[in-house]
Amino acid sequence: MSDLQYPLSSGSFFFSRRKRIRIRCKERRPAVPLFMCAVAVLTLLSFWYLDIDWIRLLSRTPDIGLIFWKLGHLSTNELSIVLASLLQTIAIAVLALLYSMLLGICFGMLAARNVLRLPVLSVLTQAFFSFLRAVPTPVWVLLMLVCFGMGPEAGVAGLCVHTTAFFTKAFAQSFESIPEETLEALEAAGASRVSVFFNAVLPASFSQLVAWCGMRLEVNFSECAILGMVGAGGVGYVIATSMQGYAYGTAGVAILLVFLTAYACERLFVMIKRLFRA
Amino acid sequence: MAAVLSFKRVCKRYPNGVCALNDVSFEVLSGEFVSVIGPSGSGKSTLLRAANALIPISSGSVYAGGERISDLRGSRLRSARRGIGMIFQNYNLVYQLSVLQNTLHGRLGYMGALSALLGLYSESDKIAALELLDELGLADFAYSRASDLSGGQKQRVGIARAVMQEPRLLLCDEPIASLDPSSSKTIMELLRSLAKKRGIACIVNLHQLDAARRYSDRIIGLSHGRIVFDGTPQMLDAAATERIYGTACENLMTGGSDVPENSATLP
Amino acid sequence: MSRKIPLLSPDLRRLYALFLGAVLLLFVIATALTGFTPALFFGQSGEIWKFLSEDFLPPRLPESGRIQVIAEAFLTTLAMAMASTTAAALLAFVMALFGSERISPYPKAARFVRGFATFLRNIPTLVWAFILFSSLGIGTGVGFTALLITSFAFMTRAFIETMEDVSSDCVESLLAAGASFPERVVHAVLPAGLSGFISWYLYCIEVNIRASTIVGMVGGGGIGLVLFSYIKTFHYGIACSIILMVAAMVIIVDQISGRIRKEILK
Question: Of chain A residues 14-53, which have a CB less than 8 A from chain B?
């Protein structure tokens, strides 16, 4: 074997300094190991900075079991209140989703580069909405609470801000993924930009929009359960107040219902996704 | 000649009720090149995966290398598996790694736990791998990422990995189904010459009747999980083909003429 | 719309009508339950405008003594997100190995692993925070744990999907070569799925930066707590500048992770 032009015997290429044959790819990309090192360093720094009292935390860990034990003693005394608040939470999530969908389509049209072809407008819209998106939902809800007072209205309004911002970006992406040729064909037929949007872009991306909505409904529901905790009504409020008032049985029922609803949402979404794929 | 693999009354029934193998018995002798043909869903893939116990069988027994492989567990199963190489339709390489690393994966079954974990292959293994890659015409690609190769080249890496296991038997699951005709020819010829040179027995699942006739010593026909034909390529006549595929020869695309006159095996 | 000749087949039309009807019905019920209408904005536009122009804007700076506190709070929030995501990613990787039927050495147990992750995931972060606060007390450690639990559950699911998409083929080939479970993990699952795992990790960092602000609000410490206390005490101008800084922090982190993702997936 060794007598042919095979580079093995000729040496230096295969044998590194330590006389060991290299096995990895020739061109290695330093990005991944570099990233891993950076993550490791940052994480260690974070742990050092947080300075968590591990002993206290670990020694109290059994208490989590205790809380679950207490939550497990479901109490149905307040069931009607819990159910009503759960219904309200779902209503907030759905309503915010519907309003945001309409707003998202409008703003998505402005933000997508291929619809109106006004680059300045799309950059401005995207910048504005990425600011709105960057601020966590509860902050918006807190501000809406100041404007509207306590109650579900503030929840809907606050949730709308974040959901609209999310949809604007997501929808704009979907719109931009429509092939340019399709738009050209309609424009060549003399259609205006707006009518191209409603006759070609919107129908073509409709299934994607529905998928985004399904995904967002899941998120909205769990965010909504959170919002109650800062005072926007719904089941979160019930959980927060009953936990603070040591009414663990009621809180347990509420958490169980939240869990079941979220799980049902997830299953539904998986089913819809499978339908779309089929 | 000793049998390297024998199936004795093997049945495989999937949980959904599909019977993929039904009372299958055969033996493969050392160095023999066997093609398995049959329509999709006839149990070809299941047969191959039962041979190295990737799929547990429902009843019967599979013997490989003197051991009843269907009973083995854990490390004994792993050491039985390393004596049986496998080649896949979709190559199943780790595309992020180099060609050489992929080839050396064939040695993992022979290595100590720690050195295998860390990928510390011995120098002699590396030299053997490089020589094998050279034999397969891949010497220049040893340090390329596996994802950069063409389909035919990827399959050659798949073959190299299997041969690195120093197997007595190679299982090839439709090795040329995703390849163009010219790469297919290269792969089949390489497979046959490598196997003959090293005395490795081969079981190849094929959809291409002409390839089966040309390259194999023996052909097994499966239909609905049963063996309906077992004989030399010369014996595979129109009636046998019809038995396997459930339809007359005229309805099949066999590639080349249907008469078994061109079925002479390669020199 | 053409009046006489329908554009759609009758079946499809019925489906669309049904869909639209269901949406409208949902809309009406939800409006009745929450009492929210867009008219509310117009009805109270005077007050909203007053709040925005007088209290909220322009953003005001806090007293100089508090600036250091705010900076430390930002660092805490970042550290909490970073530490919890990395810890969760490591745990989730191990968990995901056992959660995929095609990779796990104990395929029968995979269902239970996935069920456990589903259970953890479907309880929102803040509910976890409340459960943990009432058992462990408040503080950054507990905020860290709450984030850890939800991102662990999320990444377990994401990693399982990545593994099944990317590496089940090469896992099978190593299985056929007689490799043991740890060898299959190191030589197939890890290299094949690495860029996928990193991508999910980055996504989780983005989510956790926001979530750690929220968890902070209810007692996890960090910038969320500071912001909450300013809003509670009607210092809206200062709150506004903190909100702007939070937004800047989130946008910067998103930009960085987007850059890294592009570099790594290249």
Answer: 14, 19-26
> CB-CB: which of C87, C135, C201 is closest to A67?
C135
Cis peptide leading into B167, omega within 30 of 0? no
Please report whether residue A35 resides in a domain: no
**Chain C positions in Cβ-Cβ contact with residue A206 (cut-off 8 Å):** none
- B166 Rama sector, left if φ>0, alpha if ψ -120 to 50, beta otherwise: left
Q: Sort out which chain B residues have CB atoms less than 8 A from C186's CB and list them.
A: 117-119
* Assigned domain for A58 exists: no
Domain at A247, CATH number: 1.10.3720.10
Nearby residues of A47 by Cβ (< 8 Å), 6 or more positions away: C79, C83
Residues of C in contact with A266 (CB under 8 A): 118, 122
Rg of the Cα trace of chain A?
Answer: 27
| CA dist., res. A88 & res. C148, Å (int) | 29
What dihedral do alpha carbons A228, A232, A234, A238 form, nearest 10°? 50
Q: In this predicted structure, what is the pLDDT of residue A278?
A: 53
Interface-testing mutation among C102, C106, C187, C264, with chain B (most B C-beta atoms within 10 A) = C187
Note whether A99 contacts C38, CB cutoff 8 Å. yes
> What number of other Cβ atoms are within 10 A of residue B56's Cβ?
9
ipTM confidence score: 0.77
Q: Is B96 helix (H, G, I), strand (E, B) or coil?
A: coil
| Subunit partners of chain A (3 or more CB pairs within 8 A) | B, C
Q: Which domains does chain B have, with CATH numbers?
A: 3-83+168-263 (3.40.50.300), 97-165 (no CATH)
Instruction: Give the contacts of A59 (CB within 8 A, at least 6 positions apart).
Output: none
pLDDT in tens, chain A (278 residues): 334 444 444 444 444 445 677 777 776 677 788 888 999 999 999 888 887 778 877 887 787 888 888 877 777 777 888 888 888 888 888 888 899 998 999 898 888 887 777 888 888 988 898 888 888 888 888 888 877 777 778 888 888 888 999 999 889 888 888 777 777 777 777 677 777 777 778 777 877 888 888 888 888 887 887 777 777 777 888 888 887 787 788 888 888 888 888 888 778 777 776 766 65
Residues in chain A: 278
- Residue of A4, A14, A20, A25 to mutate, interface with B, max B Cβ within 10 Å: A25
